[in-house]
């Protein structure tokens, strides 16, 4: 029997097919119809792995679009799923920082992988993936190149953490003669600063795992590591942590 | 016999005897009663009653008038203050409409400064509340304030507030407190016979039923009804549902979303600690000592975060966690409420130390735009328990 975990985030929907091990991972943009996206993701997992619906024992759905989906055996919040997924990826993990499209969160785990405490950022997109995307785009760069263009660059100071204000601040920095690399590094520095503030509210314990869409950027990870004085690890499956957690929960139902 | 669900659904405040704006209108227009508006549970209720006036809480709990309030008040102010002020200047609150004087206390900064403006709409009598309650001088100051209020009302309504009248009103109010207590303490049963939304509703109905005999009889009947049906097996809440205590800022219509988010996602709210729930009723007024001193003592000891230090709240919470077998504490804090926000850290640590009870703080306002986010946080909290 197989299990499926689906994590419908604000920007990307992630799905994982699981049976003792991760068999298949899929990602697609969430778009405007989380319900349909969830379905599509489900069938894509089945098709790409050549298995049929009757082989699926349970489906667990998580993420902000979790309530929209109607085929879940169980709906679980992204906090619990990230914790499960992070612990599955590395059972020495005691703290998880997840920077998602619209929100970021820090989760503290005990030695059994149970959530001990957690904190989420406030209503706005400050310091999240959305913030990075908007600001980097306004520099005429793309998210994929941030590691490259910021290597060894000193950051300029960005004062506004609100997406709207940061954008205009960036424009004035550029017209004041700062180059795009310095400003990009400034943005990353600001995001890491936000992450640090969130981490500070919870007692950070080693090992810290970085998950969510931004975890693939090594410059963000390194900047954050330096700020909190802890070694932060990522996994190539960091992006899928929530979906993996959901799949593992599905297998335990 | 109907189920408890039906029973509470049919409990329609609009149709209840002696309750609500219409009852107030009758009191004013037919019985020539005077109405005193209050904002806070520090206001000595008995003194107002002893002046033969009707005290009514004006604390607003809806976001309908926030924008109006923001015309004169800053945006980053607690929604309770903005909304209350908004209702006052737009004359949209029937209770405010009938009030001929308002009694306010110097609790938090926002409120006490708002009273300065409110005074232009309806006269406000401000009581100077000491910011601590553990020194003799605090008692003396507050006692003077109670006496000043008494004198103010005596002059205004041309009446005399005698010791006898005070004693009488203390007994009456104690009776009501005890009845409310008997009701909400049903939440100590496991599983609880009551949803948090029902506890909230019944307490609200009682507070806004101005004929206290009716109010007391009604809540007593409700308690009996609930207990009887529960004992006959009408158990609606699972024994496995995590038992939640809500503390923090006063709750109201707009923030009922917090109770709902907990109960829609599998939690059972067994105790509402805040000013709109248990806080004013937990301690009775001592009937055996001088009435002014007894009133002074009771109100000064209100476990509100504007007191520094606020050890009373810590003691109260620790006691309630035990009595109600609480699995988790939710601290509902209104945006820009500094005192509760600052105190959050201490409450979290104290709960951890005393009983290792998990704690979460939820910062919210009167809008409904954060319901999704609240659900995620609160559900994750419930999953963690
Ligand atoms: S929380 Fe404090 S200031 Fe606010 S109503 Fe209650 S007692 Fe008054
Ligand atoms: S909730 Fe806080 S800020 Fe608002 S009136 Fe009460 S004590 Fe003041």
Automatic annotation (TrEMBL), chain A:
GO MF annotations, alphabetized: iron-sulfur cluster binding; metal ion binding
SUPFAM superfamilies named in the record: Actin-like ATPase domain
Superkingdom to which the source organism belongs: Bacteria
Domain ATPase BadF/BadG/BcrA/BcrD type: 4-250
Gene3D superfamilies for this protein: 3.30.420.40
NCBIfam families in UniProt: CoA_E_activ (TIGR00241)
Protein name: 2-hydroxyglutaryl-CoA dehydratase
Organism name: Halonatronomonas betaini
TrEMBL record, chain B:
The protein's required cofactors: [4Fe-4S] cluster
Keyword Iron carried by entry: yes
Listed GO MF terms: hydro-lyase activity; iron-sulfur cluster binding
Record-linked Pfam families: HGD-D (PF06050)
Alphabetical list of InterPro entries matching this protein: FldB/FldC_alpha/beta, YjiM-like
Coiled coil: 156-183
Record keyword Iron-sulfur present: yes
Swiss-Prot/TrEMBL keywords: Coiled coil, Iron, Iron-sulfur, Metal-binding
Family: Belongs to the FldB/FldC dehydratase alpha/beta subunit family.
NCBIfam families membership: double_cubane (NF040772)
The protein's name: 2-hydroxyacyl-CoA dehydratase
Organism from which the protein derives: Halonatronomonas betaini
